From TrEMBL:
GO terms for biological process: sulfide oxidation, using sulfide:quinone oxidoreductase. The keyword Hydrolase applies. Its cofactor is FAD. Residues 4-109 form the Beta-lactamase hydrolase-like protein phosphatase-like domain. InterPro entries: BLH_phosphatase-like (IPR005939), FAD/NAD-bd_sf (IPR036188), FAD/NAD-binding_dom (IPR023753), Prot-tyrosine_phosphatase-like (IPR029021), Sulphide_quinone_reductase (IPR015904). Pfam families: BLH_phosphatase (PF04273), Pyr_redox_2 (PF07992). This is Beta-lactamase hydrolase-like protein. Its EC number is 3.-.-.-. Keywords: FAD, Flavoprotein, Hydrolase, Oxidoreductase, Quinone, Transit peptide. Residues 150-269 form the FAD/NAD(P)-binding domain. It comes from Nereida ignava. NCBIfam families: TIGR01244 family sulfur transferase. One of its GO terms (molecular function) is hydrolase activity. The keyword Transmembrane helix does not apply.
Length: 559
């Protein structure tokens, strides 16, 4: 933790933890303002954890959350009111400190000259020149001129973003490419199911972002605030402007923990867990090992979600552990699914149903989790069965694995790039934006009707790279994405049902059936998941090596 003092009364920092409170207290800080919304990062402590530790140290706290890169006038007013109410010195924190520094700068613009603001923030390690332009422009960031310009700008350094950057550099090494992402750590999220099942250690699923950005690619460590596609500009936090010739948009999904009342207050304790968070997946395994009797709930929200099989994977691996330690007969497994089917591709359902029977799990369709009372260990669901009135039921639990509702990030949903539902609007074959010819999208945020999985991004990245290079050469799109996605359904320790499919649920097996029959549980698929896919991800996919990911050639109407 580094404390960046702007003035004697105000300090800002990157994300803090409860363990930092003693040092913060020793530094003389009397109040803390949290500017980072809960659930923004995969390894982020909640505000309640920070506030609890601060209270014990006699430090006051305020929660003034601001969406990443999107500091509004209302946010500035809320920050100003917090400063008025709290004792000084005060520490404000967010993911990197940039949001907090921006809030301070915009608040101080009412009473300090811009030169003084720039000097104070610069001494604390923050460049507020973009904020100065916003102040001078009446509150709006001018996008006509930029702080930097690149041939290709990529928003998001997840599986899709790093893969397409590597694929572009492999095809055209002279391109100037920038990746915009505020995260210090890159996570291999498909591995979190295995952490929750006691197979992987958490450290196997993460690497530093800096170690993964392809050579020759500029990493802009910042959050995106807005898009100005008419001016070929991306506005990032600190009100800086990045210009591009071509843009790729792939920032991943927003996990909306707050949409379930009471959930954020109880995550990580009271038997409530989720493999969708890096720091909670180990708690899943801890709960599974400790539960010898009682009721275990596994929830799945309305689609779309990333890796639609993940909620039931947690159920299968838990059931298998209880089967092996002879506790299963005393555990009531309930799968609470907001949808109306176990899996969206019917060819895989028979194999999955055999495991539902093996673990004696009850399938509850059209049950959507709406609230949790952790201390009482109760969960409330809305039941919306077809042609019946909506009902509300409350269920007791001893353990609950929650999959949160998911959506495109706010800065995508409110942008000119989004369709009516909030997803980036692309042609499902070329992945090119339907309205802006120099913009492409891949991964979880675009609206093609495919499964949102890392395996899908592995096939999408070469397609986008091919088509961008063709566009640079003045050609029409040359490659097509066929909707491929893969979901290795971990039905027991040592066996997986390897679901592979494309648009419309058409099966797309990667291997001959005599080697690996994806519609049946096999040890070969488990070996692929446990031993082969992680190195393929780290050493091939993220480095532009397109093993078994060659894009299809785009068929013209004449063909």
């Amino acid at each position: 933790m580094k404390l960046n003092k702007i003035t004697e009364k105000t300090t800002v920092s990157a994300q803090i933890s409860a363990a930092d409170i003693d040092a913060i207290n020793e530094a003389g800080i009397r109040a803390i303002i949290c500017n980072r919304p809960d659930g923004e990062g995969a390894d982020q402590p909640s505000f309640e954890e920070i506030a609890s530790a601060a209270q014990m140290a006699g430090i006051e706290t305020r929660y003034v959350p601001v969406q990443s890169g999107m500091v509004s006038d209302t946010d500035v007013d809320a920050f100003s009111n917090a400063l008025k109410d709290l004792p000084r010195p005060v520490l404000a924190y967010c993911r990197t400190g940039m949001r907090s520094a921006t809030l301070w700068s915009l608040n101080e613009a009412k009473k300090r000259p811009i030169s003084e603001i720039l000097a104070a923030t610069k001494s604390a390690g923050f460049d507020m020149n973009g904020v100065a332009r916003r102040i001078a422009n009446g509150g709006k960031t001018p996008a006509d001129t930029g702080d930097a310009h690149y041939d290709v700008v990529i928003v998001g350094a997840g599986a899709g973003g790093i893969s397409v950057a590597a694929s572009l550099k492999a095809r055209k090494s002279g391109l100037s490419v920038a990746v915009i992402d505020p995260s210090d750590i890159h996570h291999y999220q498909p591995g979190w199911t295995m952490v929750g099942g006691g197979i992987f250690e958490p450290k196997q699923t993460s690497k530093t972002m800096g170690s993964l950005i392809p050579r020759g690619v500029k990493w802009i460590k910042a959050a995106v605030a807005a898009f100005e596609p008419q001016k070929n500009a991306v506005i990032i936090e600190g009100c800086r402007v990045i210009k591009y010739d071509r843009l790729v948009v792939c920032p991943g999904l927003k996990l909306d923990w707050a949409a379930i009342e009471g959930l954020e207050d109880t995550l990580g304790r009271n038997g409530v867990t989720s493999n969708y968070r890096y720091d909670l997946a180990p708690y899943t395994w801890q709960l599974v090992q400790g539960l010898r009797q009682g009721r275990a709930l596994f929830t799945q929200p309305p689609m779309p979600i990333k890796c639609a099989g993940a909620p039931q994977k947690a159920m299968y691996l838990s059931g298998d552990a209880w089967f092996r330690n002879n506790a299963l007969k005393n555990i009531d497994i309930q799968f609470m699914n907001a949808g109306g089917a176990l899996f969206g591709v019917k060819d895989y359902v028979p194999a999955l149903m055999k495991y539902i029977e093996k673990y004696d799990a009850t399938l509850n369709y059209f049950h959507n989790l709406v609230s949790v009372d952790g201390s009482a260990k109760t969960a409330t669901f809305e039941v919306r069965k077809p042609d019946t009135d909506v009902q509300t039921i409350t269920v007791d639990f001893d353990m609950m694995h929650v999959c949160p509702p998911q959506s495109a990030p706010d800065f995508i949903r409110v942008s000119p790039l989004a369709d009516a539902a909030g997803w980036v609007d692309v042609d499902q074959a070329t992945l090119r934006h339907k309205s802006y010819d120099n913009i492409w999208s891949l991964g979880d945020v675009m609206n093609a009707p495919n499964a949102k999985t890392a395996a899908a991004a592995r096939k999408q990245a070469p397609t986008v790279a091919d088509n961008i290079v063709a566009d640079i050469r003045g050609s029409s799109p040359v490659s097509a994405y066929d909707g491929y996605g893969s979901c290795p359904l971990t039905v027991e320790r040592g066996k997986i049902v390897l679901a592979e499919f494309g648009y419309g649920g058409v099966l797309k097996p990667s291997f001959p059936s005599f080697l690996l029959n994806g519609t049946k549980p096999t040890r070969a698929a488990w070996f692929l998941k446990e031993k082969m896919l992680p190195p393929i991800y780290w050493q091939a996919m993220l480095k532009g090596k397109e093993w078994m990911a060659t894009p299809e050639k785009l068929k013209t109407p004449a063909e």
